[in-house]
Amino acid sequence: MRLKLRIWRQTGPTAAGRLEDYSADDVSPDMSFLEMLDVVNEGLIRQGKDAIAFDSDCREGICGMCSLMVNGVAHGPDRGTTVCQLHMRRFKDGDTVTIEPWRARGFPVVKDLVVDRSAFDRIIAAGGFVSVNCGGAQDGNNLPISKEVADHAMDSAACIGCGACVAACKNASAHLFISAKISHLALLPQGEVERYSRVVAMINQADAEGFGSCSNEGECEAVCPKEIPISNIARMTREYAKAVFGAR
Amino acid sequence: MAITLDAGIPSGPIAGKWDRHKFEMKLVNPANKRKHTIIVVGTGLAGASAASSLGELGYNVLSFCIQDSPRRAHSIAAQGGINAAKNYQNDGDSVYRLFYDTVKGGDYRSREANVYRLAQLSVNIIDQCVAQGVPFAREYGGLLANRSFGGAQVSRTFYARGQTGQQLLLGAYQSLMRQVHNRSVRLFPRREMLDLVVIDGKARGIVVRNLTTGEIERYAADAVILATGGYGTAYYLSTNAVNSNVTAAWRAHKRGALFANPCYTQIHPTCIPVSGEHQSKLTLMSESLRNDGRVWVPKKQGDKRPPDQIPEAERDYYLERKYPSFGNLVPRDVASRNAKQAADEGRGVGESGLAVYLDFKDAIARVGADTIKEKYGNLFQMYQKITDEDPYKVPMRIYPAIHYTMGGLWVDYNLMSTVPGLHVAGEANFSDHGANRLGASALMQGLADGYFVIPYTIGHYIASNPLPKVTTEHEAFKEAADSAQKQISALLAVKGTKTIRQIHRALGAVLWDDVGMARTEASLQRALAAIPQLREDFWHNVSVPGTPDNLNQSLEYAGRVADYLEFAELLALDALQRRESCGGHFREESQTPDGEALRDDEHYSYVAAWEFKGVGRPPELHKEPLEFDEVHLTQRSYK
Amino acid sequence: MASSRLRVFDSTVGTKILIGVTGLALFVYLLIHVAGNLLVFLGPDFFNKYAYTLEGNALLPVIEIGLLLVFLLHVYKTVKNFLRNQQARPVRYERKSYAGRPSRKSLASSTMIFSGLWLLVFIVIHVKAFRYGTEYAWPAGGRDLYRLEMENFQNPLMVAFYVLSMLVVGSHLWHGVSSGFQSLGADKPGWTQVLLPAGKGIAVLITAAFIVIALWAHFAGAR
Ligand SMILES: Cc1cc2nc3c(=O)[nH]c(=O)nc-3n(C[C@H](O)[C@H](O)[C@H](O)COP(=O)(O)OP(=O)(O)OC[C@H]3O[C@@H](n4cnc5c(N)ncnc54)[C@H](O)[C@@H]3O)c2cc1C
Ligand code: HEM
Ligand code: HEM
Ligand code: SF4
Ligand code: F3S
Ligand code: FES
Description:
The complex is a heterotrimer.
Chain A: E1 3-9, E2 18-24, H1 33-46, E3 69-70, E4 73-74, E5 96-100, E6 109-111, E7 114-115, H2 118-127, H3 147-157, H4 164-168, H5 175-187, H6 195-208, H7 219-223, H8 231-245
Parallel strand pairs in A: 1-5
Antiparallel strand pairs in A: 1-2, 3-4, 3-5, 6-7
Chain B: H1 17-24, H2 30-33, E1 37-41, H3 45-57, E2 60-64, E3 82-83, H4 95-105, H5 112-132, E4 157-158, H6 164-181, E5 185-188, E6 191-199, E7 202-210, E8 216-220, E9 223-226, H7 247-254, E10 259-260, E11 265-271, E12 294-298, E13 315-316, H8 318-322, H9 332-344, E14 356-359, H10 361-367, H11 369-387, E15 396-405, E16 408-409, E17 422-424, H12 442-464, H13 475-494, H14 500-514, H15 521-541, H16 553-577, H17 601-604, E18 606-611, E19 620-625
Parallel strand pairs in B: 1-2, 1-9, 2-5, 9-17
Antiparallel strand pairs in B: 3-4, 6-7, 7-8, 10-16, 10-18, 11-15, 12-13, 12-14, 14-15, 18-19
Chain C: H1 2-7, H2 12-38, H3 44-56, H4 60-87, H5 107-110, H6 112-129, H7 145-152, H8 156-183, H9 189-221
Helix pairs in contact in C: 2-4, 2-8, 2-9, 4-6, 6-8, 7-9, 8-9
C-alpha cells in the first residue's frame, strides 16, 4: 500500500520545526511502523538527504525508547502497544499519517522526532529507589510477600518510562509515570521505610522539571503501552496526603 | 610483545577459591576511594550494577550509555528469568549442580573456577534484588516462585512475569540513580565510546562521541569497565536491540585487548520468523514456551496444507522422537539445529519454509486455555500483534535466530582484560558460558559481575598499581580523539550510493549462511573471501548523509557497521580455526553418527584469544588451555 | 512549619487536592441549593418560610463567608493551575486526537476552564439578581423571594441565559464530580465503576432541576 506521511522535521533543539510531506510507497502490512520509517529513510539516504531521526532500540515494546505521536495519539492507534510494535496492517492504502515528537516542556526536542527524556531519570533519582547498598541482604525468602501484593506491585512496575503519558496528557503531566513507581514501591514492604519522603521528593522534582498537574482525564492510561491505570495516580495522591498531612 | 594468558585463578579447592581470593585482594582506603575515578561504559545489568556498587563504595564513577536513559539498555528485553542455586524447591539443586550444569551446558569450554564463583554468587543476587524491591513472582504462601528453564532438570529460575530482565535492570537502574542523587555517579547518556585510551600500558580513559552535539569528548580515569553487551547484531537480524554493537569492545581490541572465542554465538530456537526484507530485528518468544508447546513439522516434504489439516500421523514431533528424555526441552543449540535441519529437508512451514510449528493444542486440551493464558498471555499477545495469527487456535511458527554471543574480550579471574585496568563485564566478556549459554544464565552473570565481582577486583587493581594522575590533555587522548574524528570524516566523505543498512544486511546474510548454525571449512572460506569485499564496498560506496555536529543516527550506524565489517572476519577466522563442534559452534565435519556436536578435547580444549595486528592482517592466536579438575568431560547427550 | 505546609499546596498534587476539596464543597452547596430551590414548587408560603428560617440561622453569615472563600480559592487555584498546565506544553501538537477508551476525556473535561469562567460571570449576575435583588417584604416575615424569583424569570432573555448557564453547570459537573473524588485519591476498582456514571447522572439531574425551575417560573409565574 501507499501512504502519505506528514512528519515533523526540526534540525535542532532551538531550530523551528515544521511538518513535511513524504510518501511511503510499497508498504507491506507485515511491516512494523518503525520499519516503514526505516524504508522511507533508506530512500532519503539514497538521495543523500538527512534521514528522519527517531528513537528506537529493542523494537519489541519493552525499552521505552520509541516515542512517536501517530495521528495525534501517542504510540498510535493500538491499545497497549508501543509504536515499535504497531504494524502497518492497521493502516489502509491512501491513508495520511501525521507523525510528531512527544511535546512537553519537560521533553525538549533534540532533533526531528527525538526528544530528551532525562527529566524522568532525575525524577527517579529524586527518590524512586529503595536505599539498600549491595551486599549483606537477607535471604530473599525471609520476607514473604503475598502473591496478590507482588502481582499488584508488578502491574505498576511494568512501566517502561516511555513518556507517552506525558505526551498524551493535555497538561503534559508526568503523574502516571511517577505514580507507577510510587505504587510499585509503596505496595511492597521493601519500600515502606522511605514511602513518604519518596513521594514528596519525586513530585517536587517533576514539578521543577515543568510537567503539569493532573485533571483526571485518563488519556495517559489509554495510550500507556503497559496499560497502567490512573488508580495509581489516586494512590499517589493518598500517599502524598499521608506524607504531608499525616501525623508522623 | 609476548602475551602470556594468565587467568590468575586462585589455588586451593574450588569451593574456597573465591573466598580466599577476596581475602587476599588488596583494599582501597575508604577515604581515598573518592579520589579514584572509574569509567563504566554500558548500563545494562552488568554496567548498572557495577556502577552503582562502585558508587556505593565511594568511588567517583562516570557512567556512559548510548540510549537516552540508562534504563533502556538491552538487558531490559530479557524475558525468561534468572537462575540461582537457592534450592527453594528442594529438588536437589545446589551450587555444585548449577556449576556442573553450566560447565556441561557450555560444552566444557569454560573455566571451572569462574563458573563455580558464578554459581556461588547466584544466591546473593536474588537476595540483593529482592531487597531492592524487584517484584519477583511469588507462590500463594508468599515465597519466591521458580520455574524450570531450557536444559535444566531442576526449577531454579526466578522470574518476574515475562519481564525479568526489565525488573532486574530497573532494580539496578534505581540503585544507580540513587548514586547519581548522592553525586558518587555521574551519568553520560547518549554517548558512544569510540576509543580506549591507553597510557603507559594501562587503560586510563575513553573517547566518546556526544550523540546529541556530535562533539568528541575525552574522559580520564584510573580504571575502565566495559559492559557494552554482545555482538549479535553482526548478523544484522538478531533478537538484540538495534543499537547493540561491537564498537566499544572492538576498539578496545584494537588497543590491545585480546578477543576470545568470537565464534561462540548462540542461536535461539524460538523466534518469530522473518516476514520480509524490511525486517529490522527478530523477536524472541521466551523459551519457557517449550515447557508446554510441542515442536513439529510435517513428515512429508513441501506439505503446504494448513496445520489443522495435517493429521496427527503425518506430523513429525522430531524433538520428542529424537530426544525422548528431554523432548522439547533440549538445549538451545540442539533445538535450533534440528529446526534448520527440518527446513533444509524441505519440511519447513509457512510461506518461506523457514519455520517450524510450536503447537499448544495438547497443552490447552490438558490444562485449559485459561492456564495457558495465565502462563504465556503476554507472549501470545505479542505473537499475535506481530504475525496477526492467534496462537490459541493456530500453532505458532518459530525459527532460530542469533540471540547471544558467548565470545567476548578475554578476561582473567578478576575480569580484567589483557590491557591492565580495562575490566570487562557481562555479555561483553567471554568468561563463563563456554561454547553455549544456558537459559537464564546471562542475567545471572551480568549481575554477578557487576554487584559482586567487579567491586572487589577493581579495588585490588587500584590498590596494587601506581596510577599517576593523567589529564585529557595527554598525547594519547589527543591521538585517540583525532583518530575517532578521522573515521567520522572518512565515513561522511564516501558519499556513495548504497545505504548502510543495505551493506549491513549483506554482511548479515553472509554470516548467517556461512558462519551460522552449521559451519564448514568451505562455508567459512567463502565468508572470509566475502567479508573483505563487503568492507571494500562499504568504504567506497556507502552513503552517510548529514553532518557530524549534531544528532546523526546514520553516522552512528555507519560507525558500528564499519566495525562489524572488520570484526566479522575474526568471527569467521575463529570458527575456521576451531575444527571441532562444541555448543553453539557446529562444524559439520565434526559430528557423531547421529548428527550431534562432536568435540575434540584433545586438540581444542582451549580458549582462543586473538590479538589484533591491523585491519586485513591476520590476527595472532593465543591459547589459554582449559583444565578440568572437578567436572568429568563427557559427550553431551540429551537422549 | 506553617509555611512549608502551605507550600504543599503549590505542588501539582497539593493543588489538585485543593481544587478537589473546593470543587466538591461547591458541589455540595449546589446540591443543597437545588434542593432548596425545588421547594418553590410547594408555593410561596412554604418557600418563603423556608428561606426565612434559613436566614434566621446565626451561622449563616459564617457559612456564606466560608462559601465565598471556598469559591475564591477554587477560582484562584484552577486559574493558576490552568496557566501552569499551559506552560507545560509550550509547543502545541499539529494534530491531537482522542486516545479512545478508557480515557475519560470529553468535551466537558477539555473545557473546564471555560465552563468555570462562565460560572464566575453567571454567579456574579445571579447573586446580584437574587441575593441583592429587590427586597420585597413577606407578611409572615423575611423577604418575598418567591415573588422575586417569578419576576426575575419573566424576562425571556434571562431565562435563556439561565438555561444556557445551567447547561454549563452540567458540563462542569459532568467531569467535575467524579474528578473531584479522584483528586482526593478515591479510586478503588469497584468504587470507580459506580462513581463515574453516578457523577454524570447527578450532573444531569442538577442541570435538569434548575432548568425546570427556571422554565416553570417563567411560564407559571406569568399567571
Ligand atoms: C530478547 C532477549 C531475551 C533474553 N532473555 C534472557 C533471559 O531470560 N535470561 C537470561 O539470563 N538472559 C537473557 N538474555 C540475554 C541477556 O539479556 C543479555 O545477555 C544481558 O542482558 C547482557 O547484559 P549486559 O549488561 O552485558 O549488556 P547490555 O544490557 O546489552 O547493555 C549494553 C550497554 O552498553 C552500552 N553500550 C554498548 N556499546 C556502547 C558504546 N560503544 N558506547 C557506550 N555505551 C555502549 C549500551 O548503551 C548499554 O547500556 C536475553 C537476550 C535477549 C536478546
Ligand atoms: C459553583 C460553582 C462551581 C462548582 C460546583 C465547581 C465544581 C468543580 C468540581 C467538582 C471540580 C473537580 C475538581 C477536581 O477535578 O479536582 C471542578 C474543577 C474545576 N473548576 Fe470548578 N466549580 C465551580 C466553579 C468554578 C469556577 C467559577 C471556575 C472558574 C475559573 C472553575 C474552574 C474549574 C476548573 C478549571 C476545574 C478543573 C481543574 C482541573 O483541571 O484539575 N470552577 N470544579
Ligand atoms: C434556576 C436556577 C437557580 C435559582 C432559581 C436560584 C435561586 C437562588 C436564590 C433565590 C438565591 C437567593 C438566596 C438568598 O438570598 O438567600 C440564590 C443565591 C445564590 N445562588 Fe442560586 N439559584 C439558581 C442557580 C444557581 C447556580 C447554578 C449557582 C451556582 C453555580 C447558584 C449560586 C448561588 C449563590 C452562590 C447564591 C448566594 C448564596 C448566599 O449568598 O448565601 N445558584 N439563588
Ligand atoms: S506510565 Fe505508561 S505511558 Fe507513562 S511512561 Fe510508564 S509505560 Fe510509558
Ligand atoms: S491524561 Fe493527564 S490529566 Fe491526569 S489522568 Fe492522565 S495525567
Ligand atoms: S523500541 Fe523499545 S519499546 Fe519501542
